[in-house]
From TrEMBL:
Source organism of this protein record: Pedobacter westerhofensis
InterPro entries: GH, GH39_cat, Glyco_hydro_39, Glycosyl_Hydrolase_39
Signal peptide: 1-21
Keyword Hydrolase included in the entry's annotation: yes
An annotated GO BP: carbohydrate metabolic process
GO molecular-function terms, A-Z: hydrolase activity, hydrolyzing O-glycosyl compounds
Residues that span the membrane, as ranges: none
Descriptive protein name: Xylan 1,4-beta-xylosidase
Location of the active site: 209
Length: 566
């Protein structure tokens, strides 16, 4: 049923330029005030969100993996980048949690290399056919090259100690020349299969979180990197490589490691060539939040994630040689373990619903603010969130879809995909300052009602969220959005929404009785509910004195995208 505000829309429009929507009831008598100035450009609206990653590479070419990648590729124009672990791990290609394999490298009885690109090709073919780009991870160690080849395959499950995954794949090579030759053969094969121009458009990196996932010294990691980079450059001198995807960037230990890595690449002796320095064409690090369960309620904590990002940006900005390098947050998430569901980790219960989607909107806006503050070349932030094949429905994994059904968080990325051109100035009287969020997260008595806005030649978009760290639903609050310097007399407004009743397959699934074996009809209903929905039909609005005033009611954990076209 349409609200009274919608029914009297036409009459109001004749009197003023305000557009009124209602959703729920606002408990705050004073509306949040958001002002967007389309004439004040801040920076290009770069698609830093268009990066995704996951532990289990073999999910890539499976049924639901292909479906989700097709949807990710369709989020917007332009490439989406994909990062996956275990691309060089030995095995039969059978997928498992926190495990994957390609059998790219084995040896015969005489120790001669045997290269097999079949599974890696299946992975990269899936990306390239969809216009996606690998953020290709050179790792981990094939069993035949590992200095500690046994035990090799782990059998981890949620609830197990994380250290159980640290088997033979995590060790240095017994022969660095063979390691470098493996990389050379892989890149050479990629050029032959996909073409020089295509592979030049990829990014390559060595290993993952070497302080934890590499059972060698720092010097051994630098040696590992040098030989990999030398092999890559021998196959394709114009290929782009970097690293080092250190975790916990805000910690002193991680900062020391990252600085030593940069200094090695700039001025150190190259282990593979004997020359000074090693190729460094991108810089990457990780950033994670730290949610907790307090009195049965999840309390999110974005401050550690943002401090990690700020530290990585600051370190990059401190070297003239790295200040302008592409900076990629190799994993940027609310917490660390994607495969740890809420049954074993109840603090992860936020993942199925609107807490995850509103957190994503609120934190990505702050990532853009940090880019502005440090003046660096922010290229992308990898959301380490994909899908888990043949797992229980809505198990609470950190994923974008469950059994082929999209979760609310994927719809935030659909919103981002509708934002283009330049970021423009936004002011909100209810948006927590960047400093406050970095110091103490979003814990005050009021929610964070903020916005991110963009303007292109014939369109503008404003993303608005109502977020708080405490995972509780709440009544709608009134938001007055004023958009200044609209360069048209007549615009079409589309209002997209994620909340309990829109773009939310999880709520629909719960109303079905939370079935673990839904029928085909139920699955079709869930698939439809997982798509991005609008609040009513498009509206034609008359712009007066280059300004629009739009009133909406936005519930707690809700996200709206107001899109204007002219």
């Amino acid at each position: 049923m349409k609200s009274p505000a919608i029914r009297i829309f036409t009459a109001i429009l004749l009197i003023s330029c305000a557009v009124h929507y209602s959703f729920g009831q606002s408990t705050n008598p004073q509306p949040a005030k958001i002002t967007v100035d389309l004439a004040r450009k801040k920076a290009p609206m770069k698609p830093v969100w268009a990066w995704f990653g996951y532990d289990e590479p073999n999910y890539t070419y499976m049924k639901d993996g292909k479906k989700l990648l097709t949807e990710i590729a369709a989020l917007s124009e332009g490439p989406k980048y994909v990062r996956a672990h275990s691309l060089l791990v030995t095995g039969d290609g059978e997928a498992a949690l926190k495990w994957g394999s390609t059998n790219a490298y084995t040896e015969d009885v005489h120790g001669n290399p045997i290269y097999n690109w079949k599974i890696i090709d299946s992975i990269f073919d899936t990306y390239v056919k969809r216009g996606m780009k690998p953020f290709a991870q050179i790792g981990f160690m094939p069993q035949a090259l590992s200095t500690h080849p046994e035990p090799y395959k782990h059998h981890w499950k949620p609830g197990d100690n994380y250290d159980l995954i640290m088997t033979g794949w995590a060790y240095p090579p017994k022969d660095y020349n063979k390691w470098g030759e493996l990389v050379y053969q892989w890149v050479k094969h990629s050029v032959e299969r996909y073409g020089k121009a295509e592979v030049e458009s990829w990014y390559w990196e060595v290993w993952n979180e070497p302080a934890y996932y590499f059972k060698g010294t720092r010097e051994e990691f630098f040696k590992l990197y040098d030989y990999a980079a030398a092999g890559l450059k021998r196959a394709l001198p114009t290929a782009k490589i970097g690293g080092m995807n250190v975790a916990g960037t805000k910690s002193k230990k991680s900062q020391e490691y990252l600085n030593e890595f940069i200094q090695h690449c700039l001025t150190g002796t190259n282990y593979a060539t004997g020359k000074t320095g090693s190729p460094l064409e991108l810089l990457s690090f990780h950033a994670k939040g730290e949610p907790k369960l307090i009195n049965g309620v999840v309390l999110m904590d974005p401050a550690p994630q943002l401090r990690d990002i700020a530290t990585g940006f600051r370190i990059a900005a401190s070297y003239p040689e790295t200040k302008n390098l592409p900076l990629i947050i190799g994993e940027s998430d609310p917490e660390g373990c994607a495969a740890c569901g809420m049954a074993t980790n109840p603090e992860n219960a936020y993942r199925n619903g609107t807490m995850y989607s509103s957190y994503t909107a609120a934190t990505f806006a702050r990532k853009y603010e940090l880019e502005d503050q440090y003046g660096i070349n922010f290229k992308g932030a990898v959301s380490w969130s994909f899908e888990f094949e043949n797992q229980p429905w809505f198990y609470g994994f950190r994923d974008l879809a469950t059994n082929g059904v999209d979760k609310p968080v994927l719809n935030v990325f659909r919103m981002f995909g509708k934002m283009s051109g330049d970021r423009v100035a936004v002011q909100s009287n209810r948006m927590y300052s960047l400093k406050t969020v970095m110091d103490s997260s979003i814990r005050g008595p009021q929610t964070d009602i903020g916005a991110l806005a963009s303007k292109d030649n014939e369109t503008a978009a404003v993303m608005i969220w109502n977020y708080h760290d405490e995972d509780k639903q709440g009544p709608a609050e009134a938001v007055n959005l004023v958009i200044e310097h609209v360069p048209a007399k007549l615009v079409t407004m589309t209002h997209y929404r994620i909340d309990s009743n829109h773009s939310n397959s999880y709520e629909v699934w719960k109303k079905m009785g939370s079935p673990q074996s839904p029928s085909k009809t139920q699955i079709a209903t869930l698939e439809k509910a997982g798509q991005l929905e609008t609040m009513g039909k498009d509206q034609k609005l008359t712009v007066k004195e280059n300004q629009l005033s739009i009133n909406i009611n936005l519930p707690r954990q809700g996200v709206s995208l107001i899109k204007l076209d002219w």
